[in-house]
Amino acid sequence: MDRGDYLYIWQAPDWPHWRYDLAALAPLLAEVSHAQGLLAGRLVDAGLPVRAQASLSVLTDDVVKTSEIEGEKLDVASVRSSIAQRLGVDIGALAPVDRHVEGIVEVVLDATANCHAPVTQERLLGWHAALFPTGHSGLVRIAAGAWRDDAHGPMQVVSGPVGRHRIHYEAPPATRLAADTCRFLDWINSPPHEPPLVRAGLGHLWFVTLHPFDDGNGRIARALGDLLLARADNASQRFYSLAAQIRREREAYYQILEQTQKGTLDVTAWLTWFLSALQRAIAQAQRTLDAVLGKTRFWQQVAGTPMNERQTRLVNRLLDGFEGKLTTTKWAAIAKCSADTALRDINELVARDVLRRSPAGGRSTSYELNIPAAP
Q1: Is residue 16 reached through a cis peptide bond, with omega within 30 degrees of 0 on the bond before it?
Q2: β partners of residue 158
């Protein structure tokens, strides 16, 4: 059916009867499934400790990036500490964790670790309450742990300054939410009739189109997408992050979302974008696994090399991805020590072949790790 006298897909007479061209999607589905298989094979060979570190890295990225999409910046160390505690992964010293970070981590982990549990209204309301433990989004009071009521007008996605703002999307009225969410939950808990990866794309789109909460709809939609992907993988551990990939492609994500929500119920274009982004997320996971394996090889290489707590912490910081060049000044600032202590720490690690002076010139001497080459 072509789009008639309606603006948004939820106004279509046959809503929510999704349609898509499976033949057109088949090659991409095969490519994504192949990429998943290759990643799974590498992870099996890598062993349990490496899988745990890879999962920790991916989940940390997932939590941080799903919040960044909404313009919220979380402390990476706090997120990593919270996840490590819950997974039982030893990362040495733990950073302080606030209840807001704990709430987001709880939602992401519950979505994947308990992916086969039914998705109920109570579970979604619990997720929402966990995302907003103070009942506020920023300074604005919201109905945390409850569906929106549209008391202040229709739910709209807007951009631009007040008075000249642009409406990208308007969600179904709150009076429809009871029936619409019930239909969605019946679908997500029923035996699948679609390919599992297609189902993940439809679940993400369907929930974010309902937009049933005052805030946090995107984060919960991505959590539901992860839940459906975990079901598709039949694995409760996550080794790739679609949320992080969406953050890298945020503009394209919002563009295809708006185009789809103002289009017909033929969502082939959305699913094509979703599957392509998923393919790129898996490719990024391969690079993450390379980094984890490199970190493992590094610690095996330096096993027995004496290091104090500052040195161990800074080396781990370098292994996890240090932005810019490591200098004595930066070492002192991060380790909260004097410049003399920082220089002594560095010189000891240079003498023990843990660090080397960077060949790049500049006003300040910089240092980098001696990473062993891959076998």
Answers
A1: yes
A2: 167
